Amino acid sequence: MFKKVGVVGSGIVGQTLANGFVGHGYAVMIGTNTPAKRDELNSKTNEKVSVGSFEETARFGEIVVLAVKGTAAEAALKAAGLANLAGKTVIDTTNPIADAPPVNGVLQYFTSQNDSLMERLQALAPQARLVKSFSCIGHAFMVNPDFKGLRPTMFICGNDEGAKAEVKAILDLFGFEVADMGRVEGARAIEPLCILWCIPGFLANSWTHAFKLLKG
Ligand SMILES: NC(=O)c1ccc[n+]([C@@H]2O[C@H](COP(=O)([O-])OP(=O)(O)OC[C@H]3O[C@@H](n4cnc5c(N)ncnc54)[C@H](OP(=O)(O)O)[C@@H]3O)[C@@H](O)[C@H]2O)c1
After folding, report:
1. Structure confidence by residue, pLDDT tens digits, 81-119
2. How far apart, in whole angstroms, are the C-alpha atoms of residue 186 and residue 54?
């Protein structure tokens, strides 16, 4: 029996993953704290996803997805309610993109190299079982990516092995191979992959690629 998924975040990533989980048989709620977006979310998910607040969505989810703007991620976790996340697998899709423009196509981050947004979120919600995932690929390729038969690699990390196993099974279902980069500090390497992924987009309007880890 599939678990219930609460997707905290109403942007394109939240919508894409909410629809993706529905397509794979899960019951899904998507969360926004902007009531004016509720009608739009109903139509973007063909009424197959229920819509709630961040708090209602975190409570609904047996698995929770965090898909909010990086600068708002800590506030969003608090709004979702730390008690509602305790013991749950929380799929962290966020990147710490600063409110400053890219420099020659290179995104600016508000974290430094020996820090990551995921570590801040895990420290804020120590009882949540965070797993970094979906952060290093564009939303168009997050569900059933089609690269002519090749499975793209999704880099993940997190402190809880059980939560990572749960996310690995989801990624397998969604069409990825998984590269486990260890504990939460692995996010210091995974989050910047978004910077790399976006450079061809900003410089040459090329957004249709994915990472693949080759192993000898
Ligand atoms: N776009 C991509 O292809 C892509 C790929 C990989 C990873 N990511 C990462 O995924 C996350 C979501 O990206 P996105 O493109 O879907 O949309 P986004 O615009 O980065 O995030 C939208 C969500 O952030 C919330 N939000 C924005 N400002 C807020 C604030 N001040 N306080 C509380 N909540 C706030 C919004 O809340 P409301 O619902 O209340 O409006 C909404 O739910 C980001 O961290 C991004 O870096 C994006």
Report:
1. 999 999 999 999 999 999 999 999 999 999 999 999 999
2. 27
